[in-house]
UniProtKB/TrEMBL annotation, chains A, B:
CDD domains: GST_N_Zeta
Signal peptide: none
GO cellular component, as recorded: cytoplasm
Biological process terms in GO annotation: glutathione metabolic process; L-phenylalanine catabolic process
Species annotation: Methylobacterium gregans
Name used for this protein in its record: Maleylpyruvate isomerase
Keyword Isomerase carried by entry: yes
Taxonomic lineage from the root: Bacteria, Pseudomonadati, Pseudomonadota, Alphaproteobacteria, Hyphomicrobiales
Location of the GST N-terminal domain: 1-81
Keywords: Isomerase
Residues annotated as domain GST C-terminal: 86-214
Amino acid sequence: MKMYGNWRSAAAFRVRIALKLKQIPYEETFIDLDAGDQHRPAFRAINPQGAVPALFDGDGPPLTQSLAILDYLEETKGGVRLLPEDPRARARARSLAQVVACDTHPLYVPRVRTYLMEAYGLPKERMMDFVRHSFTTGLETLEKRLGGEPGTGRFCQGDQISHADLCLVSLWVGTKIFAVPTEPYPTVARIAEACLALPAVAEAHPLRQPGAPQG
Amino acid sequence: MKMYGNWRSAAAFRVRIALKLKQIPYEETFIDLDAGDQHRPAFRAINPQGAVPALFDGDGPPLTQSLAILDYLEETKGGVRLLPEDPRARARARSLAQVVACDTHPLYVPRVRTYLMEAYGLPKERMMDFVRHSFTTGLETLEKRLGGEPGTGRFCQGDQISHADLCLVSLWVGTKIFAVPTEPYPTVARIAEACLALPAVAEAHPLRQPGAPQG
């Protein structure tokens, strides 16, 4: 497979983990989001939205949107299962994934950060209040649910890693990049550490990808 | 089934359409978002995130997050299929759904609108610039993709209604509520009208629910 991604992208990180866990060979082309490569015609022809990741599986059209890609990989490829069999457990794993991928991550992507600074004239540090608020709201929801719902195990849903964990760890890594305090979220922290202890997750880590800052 | 929703909620609208298309009997309890009922302990016990919809299927725990609920209904209930069989077509339908449910709708929910006004002291009309920008960005992506990709038919993916259309029409109805211009999006408009022509969609329409403004 061929993936267009970016070292920092939380959405590309989720897909990269799934590809590695399922042992699917892939090559990743890095789109330089800071240089605006996502807006150039060459990439807009791949994804008119100008967002990573985009994944090619053979000759078909590009697959886009990280959760849609994760479901596609789940439905078409073998290897480790990343959604539980039981429909209610699947629904819970997906719901937790969407707390991150719908209600948290889209609020702090570059497009939104740029808009807030340009349209409202906010200096970067004031704009970052919104980023941290978005992270904190998502982390609070995850902590309450994971700490209070009986479905939680070693991972978000029971003892097997699922889409929920791929999303959770992508948010967790973002707290380091954006300097978001994490002390109030011990259950989220425990599960993130369980994910990061897996070689596939560690290898997929943003800071281990080309283009990432060194040291 | 028992659903907690709100007349204005785009996410509740999506689930309401699916329940009606699949002819699943349900009762809806309206949570008054303007009065802050989503923050009260009684509702937080149902969904710690304080978001609608929440759906009860029998005695199980509440199902939350609209896309996770749609997948659950698809996997466990009969009736009209709302995702195509072919994995690539499914992935495209899901990707289009997520353009709305991940990258557009979460940016203009009450929580975000309130934050922008309170934290940045923006008057309502200035805050609304962000709301309209979010709608416009989502609509532009949908128009480019639906107008340019061969998978588009009478509906977003071929000639059968799918999760993509449920999300699209939920965004479309929002353009009326938030006074967002829609002239530049003829393909989106065509598909939204095709959806609204279905009795199940018309009956699920926000303005036909209890609590909605009259006339």
